[in-house]
Predict the 3D structure of the following.
Amino acid sequence: MTAPHILGFLGILFIIGFIGDYLFKKISFPDILVLLGLGYVAGPVLHIVDPAWVAPAAPIIANLSLVVILFNGGLGLEFSQARATAPRAIALALVGIGASMIAATTFVYYVLDWELMNSLLLGAIVGGTSPAIVMPLIGRAKVSPETSSLLHIESALNGALVIVIALVILEVMTVGATGNIGPAIAKAIGMRFLIGLGIGGGAGFAWLWVLTFIEGELYDDILTLAVLFLLYLAVESLQGSGAIFALVFGLILGNGMDFARFLRTKRTIEIHNTMMTFHSQISFIVKTFFFGYLGLMITFDDPNVIVPSILLSLALLAVRCIVVPAISIGKKSLLANTGILATMLPRGLSAAVVAEIAASSGIPNARLYPEITIVVIATTVIISAVGIPLFARKSPQENSETKEKGGTANSP
């Protein structure tokens, strides 16, 4: 493919991305499905783009998508709402991943007849939702801020948990470690989260202070993006969670005024609309690249795994339909949104990355990990896409406003 052909394909990709985003806003048809379909048609169907051409760029696309989408999601979170929903979001993430891993491991062990550790690894890979998919989906859906905040935080935690748990299990399988791996997994998760949280918090407050001195500069948004990338590199180099860092860093920058009042600090800044718009546009670009690329990766080389993978996705949905109401007990607003919370289970970036790592590890059934994972990703994205028009047409806020207007009109 020549350079003009590449530019032409990028032009088509961005136009399709815009149309998908427009349709999402107007009729709630998820743009992610449009981009996945475009990638699949351009690659495996019409062979316009060879997946092998973009395969070397997969780690770059994956990491870029993760950090930008999480940062942009943090910018859009309200601190007060995030603080209120954090305990349930953490519970949903931990219980959800645990239950999903048990269900997936059991399914693979008995249905596909894999060894226990292989089953456990696949269960970990598909055990959690993807922030790279949840955040763009829920960002356009009509749901309450509380529901949106809960799903944002849960998916960010899941994205980090899936990678840590799966890589520890893979290391045990390849190195041949014995004994109880539970403490090793818990220690690895704890350290990654603490490093990401600590650097994200410290850097966020420090950068808010720096922005007070360069307020109004034309390229302060680009400088902020550069700092984000450099600090993400530092966090990952220190074996911390870059996902948690990006979310916390964005959350602090997006709530500068609230944190100033909380810390009783006079000197602060509120992120201006230009910076918010810029980072939203960057998020749109990387999202378009990522899901177009993901569509290219759908090959279905082994048709025998398609049906079991779809059944596995339905098992994950069944588990989430049990976990969500349990976590929502005592909170009427969440119980009223169990439909959107239960169907918002898309697997994505983290699962795809770890599946590719497993495929190159030389373990038994290594080549099947990406194939099963891609089908699970596609199926769970479709489930989430269907759930949006079914359960998120009106948020509780809109419903309450309608009732208030009706009550006012009918009142004497």
User: Anything to note?
Assistant: The domain at 3-180+282-403 is CATH 1.20.1530.20 (Na+/H+ antiporter like fold). Residues 394-412 have pLDDT under 50 and may be disordered. Residues 79-111 form the longest helix (33 residues). The chain has one domain: 3-180+282-403.
